[in-house]
User: What shape does this take?
Amino acid sequence: MGRIFHCVKPITVMCVCALLIGIFIPLHAQWQNSEVDTLTNTQIRKETEIQSLDIDNLDFVHLVFKHDAAVGWGIYYITNSPAGTWQAPELVNDTDQVCYSPALAVSPLNDEPYITYEDDSEICFAYPSSSGWQQHMVTSDDRMDCYTTIAIDGAGRVHLAWITEDSLTLDYKIAYAIGDSIDWEVQILFGSELGPYGTGAVPYIAVTEDGIAHIVYRGGDYGDYHIHHAWNDTVGGSSWNYEIIMSGNVNDFSATLVVDDNDDLHLAMGGNDGWGFPGRVYYRYQPHGQNWQAYELASLTRSAVEPSIALDADKAPQIIWMETSGNFFTGYVYYSHQNTVGQWQVAYVIGDDHFTPSFKIDSGDYGHIACHSGGNTGNYDIFHVTSSDPLTSIKEYSNGTIPRRSLYHYPEPVTGSATFSYSIPTDAFVTLRIFNSLGQEVATFVNRVQPAGDHQEQWNITDLTSGIYFYSLDAGEYSATAKMIIVR
Assistant: This one.
């Protein structure tokens, strides 16, 4: 965004309107003419899950979904080539099984798809062979096991996580397994606290290249749900670390996680402020070996839940999520990403009868979504949505001289003090000023030479009233402007 506030003189209301337009109206062409494939063309009920989609090294799309049948839900797999030729769906499970919650991941070693699912309160793992899909039971006991998730590391080892019961206390816990098609090492994470309604914990697993597992899930008790994070320090290790990750929501119910090739963590989390209050999606980032950075509201003014996150070629986060009205899904799917100054922007993808999107980005930065219909209309189908252009990253907005996430603040809204974080590309004389909604300067709290790099400045509110304010950063030839809300 170019410079809006050039000097300390008051600006006109027309200029403020222009700034508001620059903030709130995103220019996103990536999904406007997206390609939508209808995969099954039947009226039988079928559904995707949050981990239904993956893409291999050759950009083949792999997709799994559950399909209603005479004996109950079955698990089906379907794939296509980069040319867009879809094969016929294949039944993954045995015909006499009643199965739920499929999740899919593709091995980076051989591009083969691997699927895990729940089979009559047990966890099953399936893989393709020359004679069809092979199934292997990961668990076989009298405990309840459900809602499984899968990841594969750089050595081809398969990692699973799911919800189970502690056989002694009957408390719900997170379970974890590492193995291959036959042999599995299963653990219960006794430090995980899921509460009395733990079957809704919705775990999601991601792994580093060398096999360190990270599991995020809804932890806590009713009315005090947050995203909990568990990770081990060695491959397959049984010593687990635990932490609670907060957002701007009162309660968080679901999260998805990506580990990049630097072992940095990128988290999308969704929740709300209670029954009937709008949902919101937040993004959090943890550089390897450092603390989590402040949460960022990714869904802006939209009511949003159940995010799915992926990274583009520049490791910039892209998030797909479902819109809600109160506590009901509208059937619309939206997309969020950051611009070069760290502001999140939102674009419509597809609606108004599309649910549970699963999201990946291919080697060309094209976005892929799997979702299902039928929740509003009863017309059930599986869809694959491909962006019409590569998804937005820093390449589209700058020549590379301006660092990503160049100006932002937290918390939002501001109640007592605010911390401003920014990056400048070169040594420069820096000014950071606050303006009210009429464009009148109300404070200047940075006015000195600073070196290139990342900076943080804290500002304590004194006599400002509640309202919308703007802050402007000037650093040599570089300038940026952002908005904040003050609540007193």
